[in-house]
TrEMBL record:
This is Histidine kinase. The keyword Kinase applies. It comes from Roseateles asaccharophilus. The keyword Kinase applies. GO terms for molecular function: phosphorelay sensor kinase activity. The chain crosses the membrane at residues 38-59, 79-98, 110-132, 156-176.
Length: 389
């Protein structure tokens, strides 16, 4: 006996556990309805119930509303049955609404779910009305007027009500589907915009990182610290130095987005960098640029000579040249370019290994053959970079 009871208890527990998962899914489907969707459905159901409001008013003229309980039953049937229909319909329609939004047969699935929900709702309503024994408004009016109930075919009545509910349900489901598609599209657009912003931030970060690699982080930091101290002490050179640094960054930043620059742009970059250094040391520095008219539109890799200038100035620290020049000319055989960077300080070449490492970096930047040479005299240093085509 006890074994039989244990087996029955286990079977009951298994049945409850088997129902738990579908009930949880149904509850999640119900919770997926937004407040606006739920309120819209309820208003639609109540609006449908109020379609025959004139019949209710006519009924009030025949019976005493306060004494006849049939009027209240008819009112409940008129207003609450559409709400019950809506709630039962959602049990059938919400699962396909919440699943596989990109399925190619989604609209067909929604229509089929709506039709099945309509048929099941009709069967449930017939049983519910029979149990509650709620009269309809038409039945009470005919009874008060002494009219006999017109015989109708149960099949035609069932089909007519089914079609009526199906059309209204499809309108409601279509409205919900349209709103959800719009929300998905807006979410997708927001996600794409966010990804685009993230990519833009990464690209900007990469460009800034490249700029820092060219301009030197310590150079920027020291310059900003000096400008801050100058402002704090009220020194007049603070504002001009800030303008020089901003000008240098405005010149350097666009170069990171361009595959090629002109010789004039490259000269402007060198000049703006030297102007910031000269401002920090409060020293006059002259810069000159020489380029034949035939080479003014020659494309050059951006920031080609800035690493070379930075290396030379590190060798010269704490000295600073008083004059720097940049010259562009063609090779003797006409198959390449020669770039000359001259500074009026001696001993800036360094060892050959370091110079060759810099030459490798320049070759990678140029993307082709490049030869770097350095010659130092008693009062100057000349860097020669030859690019052959």
């Amino acid at each position: 006996m006890s074994r039989q009871m244990s087996a029955e208890a286990g079977a009951a527990a298994g049945a409850v556990a088997g129902l738990a998962a579908p009930l949880r899914r149904l509850w999640r489907d119900w919770r997926s309805l937004s407040r606006s969707e739920f309120m819209g459905l309820m208003l639609l159901a109540l609006g449908f119930g109020l379609i025959d409001l004139s019949a209710l008013v006519d009924l009030g003229g025949y019976i005493d509303i306060g004494e006849d309980p049939h009027w209240l039953a008819a009112l409940c049937r008129q207003l609450f049955l559409p709400v019950i229909v809506t709630l039962l319909m959602m049990l059938c329609v919400l699962p396909p609404l919440n699943r596989q939004p990109d399925h190619p047969q989604r609209l067909l699935r929604l229509a089929l779910a709506t039709l099945i929900g309509t048929l099941l709702t009709q069967l449930a309503l017939r049983g519910l009305v029979g149990v509650l024994d709620w009269p309809s408004v038409d039945e009470l009016l005919n009874a008060q007027k002494g009219k006999a109930k017109r015989p109708t075919s149960p099949t035609l009545g069932f089909l007519g009500q089914t079609l009526q509910i199906f059309i209204l349900a499809m309108l409601a489901v279509g409205l919900i589907e349209w709103q959800r598609r719009r929300r998905r599209a807006e979410a997708s657009l927001a996600r794409l915009q966010h990804e685009q912003q993230q990519l833009a931030r990464r690209a900007l970060a990469n460009r800034l990182a490249a700029l820092q690699a060219q301009v030197e982080p310590q150079f920027l930091f020291d310059t900003l610290v000096e400008i801050e101290q100058a402002y704090a002490q009220g020194r007049p050179e603070a504002a001009p130095q800030m303008e020089r640094l901003i000008h240098h960054l405005r010149v350097a930043l666009p170069r990171l987005r361009e595959p090629h620059v002109s010789p004039a742009h490259e000269a402007e970059l060198l000049h703006s960098y030297l102007a910031v250094l000269a401002g920090r040391q409060q020293q006059a520095l002259q810069f000159s640029h020489h380029c034949p008219e035939s080479l003014r539109d020659t494309p050059l890799p951006p920031m080609l000579l800035l690493p070379l200038l930075q290396r030379a100035l590190r060798k010269a620290t704490p000295r600073l040249p008083r004059h720097c020049s940049f010259t562009l000319e063609t090779l003797e055989d006409g198959r390449g370019l020669r770039l000359l960077l001259a500074l009026d300080l001696p001993g800036l070449c360094g060892d050959d290994a370091e110079l060759q490492a810099l030459a490798e970096r320049l070759r990678a930047l140029v993307g082709g053959p490049a030869e770097l040479r350095c010659r130092s005299s008693e009062d100057a240093t000349l860097f020669t970079l030859e690019l052959t085509s």
